[in-house]
Design a protein that fits this description.
Pfam families: p450 (PF00067). The protein is mainly alpha-helical and about 90 residues long. It is about 55% helix and about 5% strand. A two-stranded antiparallel sheet has the order 1-2.
Length: about 90
C-alpha cells in the first residue's frame, strides 16, 4: 500500500512544477479563483466554492495523469498451475 505524506508531497511538487513552467495555466487558475467572493468567516461556503473550481479540478487531474505518484498496477505472475474456488490459473 502506498499512502501518506510522500505521495502528497510528490503530487504537490509536480503541480508546482507545471505551474512554474506553464504560466498561461497559472494565469487561468488565478482568473478562475478571483471570480469568487471568498468569505473566510464561513468555512462551509468557502469549501463549497472551492469544490466548484472546475479548471482547478481538471488541472489537478491532468497533472496526476501526466505524472502519476504511484504505480498504477502490480504485475503478478503465476509460477505454477493453481486452482482456487474451482477456477484454474495456468502457469
Amino acid at each position: 500500500m502506498v499512502a501518506g505524506y510522500e505521495t502528497t508531497s510528490t503530487a504537490l511538487a509536480y503541480l508546482t512544477y507545471v505551474l512554474a513552467t506553464r504560466p498561461e495555466i497559472q494565469d487561468k487558475l488565478i482568473e478562475e479563483i478571483n471570480q469568487y467572493n471568498w468569505n473566510n468567516k464561513n468555512i462551509e461556503e468557502d469549501y463549497e466554492t472551492a469544490m466548484n473550481l472546475s479548471y482547478l479540478d481538471l488541472f489537478i487531474r491532468e497533472v496526476l495523469r501526466m505524472y502519476p505518484v504511484t504505480i498504477k498496477a502490480v504485475i503478478r505472475e503465476c509460477n505454477k498451475t493453481t486452482t482456487i474456488c474451482g477456477h484454474t490459473i495456468e502457469k
